[in-house]
Amino acid sequence: MRVGLVGTGYAAKLRAEALLQDERSHLVAVVGHTPETTEIFAKEYQTLALNSWQELVAREDVDMVVISTVNRDHGAIARAALTHGKHVVVEYPLAVDFTEAKEIIALAKAQKKLLHVEHIELLGGLHQALKQNLEQVGDVFYVRYSTINPQNPAPRKWTYNHELFGFPLIGAISRLHRLIDLFGEVFTVNCHQRYWAVESEYYQTCMCVSQLCFHSGLLAQVIYGKGETIWQPERKFEVHGEKGGLIFDGNTGYLIKSGETTAIDVGTRRGLFAKDTTMVLDHLFAGTPLYVTPEASLYTLKVADAVQRAANSGLTIFLNDALD
To answer: What is the domain-level CATH number for residue 158?
Structure first.
């Protein structure tokens, strides 16, 4: 499988390493944000440096395009790659716009090409531990998922840029996708969010607090914050059920029931991009099923879009089940 890679950051490096280690793939070319970083990356991973992603997706010696660049550009690159008859692997989100993402999925089907949206949060130790222990807490009625990252000074990079990263819970859509994978479809959402910024393009802090009411009656709070005016880090997932609770705090996990607390092995977050890459190649070469569908990712993007509309309007947004 001849592969072209868009991106030279953290995820792109892990993709390149995985592709080089698998004899079924050959990394043909890479394109990054600047010629300098692209040349350095290409030399490290023994591949060809290109000047634009448009040039990469048009190459006849590329069978698959892996998109590991800023969120804003995912949709445009995926659409162009599919139009040129390439398989596409893209880090979440597929696009920052729901309608665009829906059109790209339809294009992949028309072209009869693979479109895989990475959601490695489903492969990690936390998610697997949640799935294995969920039945023990009975009917779940409340979940709180908080990822807060103080950074002072805040880096002036794309993850703090309104346009390049997107709305916080679209750019960080894995927070919602984990919940939807566990608990099903969403009935209503609301959201409050705030930026602290001294210029128009970049912000120094964001805080986003959303509530999702599921069809089951479950209420989930999702808290996402990063930047300078946040003072205490937190990576916590709480599940409260009628027969017990699950508490995951950082890399530790506990099952709490009446009169007893049991430690849970959370496992590791290492090696997930390599695992995802291997599963893509297994699918293409042997037809083995993938762990997530584009439609599942699209539904989460629909929910994230509703969260954004709730934040902008101050209203509770009702979702219907159709991917309209």
So the answer is: 3.30.360.10
Name the pTM for this structure.
0.94
What CATH number corresponds to the domain at position 100? 3.40.50.720
In sequence order, what E strands does 151-217 have? 186-196, 205-214
Q: Is residue 176 part of a domain?
A: yes
d(CA 272, CA 118): 10
HSE toward the beta carbon, residue 49, CA cutoff 13 A? 15
Domain coverage including residue 42:
2-118
Residue by residue, pLDDT tens for the chain (324 residues) are 999 999 999 999 999 999 999 999 999 999 998 999 999 999 999 999 999 999 999 999 999 999 999 999 999 999 999 999 999 999 999 999 999 999 999 999 999 999 999 999 999 999 999 999 999 999 999 999 999 999 999 999 999 999 999 999 999 999 999 999 999 999 999 999 999 998 999 999 999 999 999 999 999 999 999 999 999 999 999 999 999 999 999 889 999 999 899 999 888 778 999 999 999 999 999 999 999 999 999 999 999 999 999 999 999 999 986 565
Residue 135 and residue 111 share a domain: no
> Is residue 65 helix, strand or coil?
strand
Asked which of 118, 145, 166 is the last residue of a domain, the reply is 118
Q: Which helix (H) or strand (E) holds 40?
A: helix 35-44
Query: Does one domain contain both 133 and 81?
Result: no
